[in-house]
Specification:
Blueprint lengths: L6 H4 L34 E6 L8 H13 L4 E6 L5 H5 L3 H6 L4 E5 L2 H4 L6 H5 L9 H16 L2 E3 L17 E4 L5 E8 L3 H12 L1
Parallel strand pairs: 1-2, 1-4, 2-3
Antiparallel strand pairs: 4-6, 5-6
InterPro entries: Glycosyltransf_32 (IPR051981), GlycoTrfase_DXD_sugar-bd_CS (IPR007577), Nucleotide-diphossugar_trans (IPR029044)
GO molecular function, one term: alpha-1,4-N-acetylgalactosaminyltransferase activity
GO cellular component, one term: membrane
């Protein structure tokens, strides 16, 4: 197996405002089950991705997750963390503990290198391109959102988006227009039907 090109990239001189995403490659100290091993996620699922390495959600992000869960009580709401979440943060009285009390909210750990394995972006990630990005947290989030839809199908939301109405009437494949000439990266819904497969495969290969 080819060794990922991480060490050299992470040690490169970086401008001091670059966020550090080295947590994406840390396995120790994690209280969450890996998403890679979970085969039982239902088709009616909404996904959020936390890629900042904080290992928790702030109150604004927690409100986004809760809004999706309250509006879609029959859907599973999945929050994927690309860095470790400790047992102390998960089980003490913070935002994650509060969200755990809502039955349809689930937390998972996303191990980046394992998650992209076998996808069109595996070589891109293993080559260290995200580590060299000017905006590594944002670019990692955008990439893993697409990978999640490629692997699972469902709806992806950003952690600063509130859900006011259910998505059932929108169909299985849809995207939001940001302006007359641009589409937003989220919210985004891609199904596992042939149309959805063509769209998401094309998006990952761009």
């Amino acid at each position: 197996m080819t060794k990922p090109n991480l060490e050299g990239d992470l040690r490169q001189p970086r401008r001091k405002f670059y966020p550090n995403i080295s947590c994406h490659y840390i396995d120790a100290g994690d209280a969450l089950s890996p998403i890679e091993d979970n085969l039982s996620i239902p088709l009616k699922s909404i996904f959020f991705h936390e890629t900042s390495c904080r290992g928790q959600l702030n109150s604004r992000q927690a409100c986004s997750v809760e809004s999706a869960a309250r509006v879609h009580p029959q859907w599973q709401i999945n929050v994927l963390f690309s860095g470790p979440v400790t047992d102390n943060i998960l089980n003490n009285y913070g935002s994650l503990y509060a969200l755990k009390q809502i039955q349809n909210i689930k937390f998972f750990r996303l191990h980046l290198l394992q998650y992209v394995k076998g996808t069109p972006v595996e070589d891109f990630v293993r080559g260290g391109s995200l580590n060299r990005s000017w905006w590594p947290v944002q670019h990692t989030a955008e990439l893993v959102q697409l990978v999640t839809l490629y692997k699972r199908g469902g709806v992806c939301l950003d952690l600063d988006q509130l859900v006011m109405k259910p998505f059932e009437d929108l169909g299985d494949n849809w995207v939001v227009r940001k302006s007359q000439k641009m589409l937003a990266s989220c919210p985004l819904s891609i199904s596992k039907d042939p149309v959805g497969r063509v769209v998401i495969d094309s998006a990952l290969r761009q």
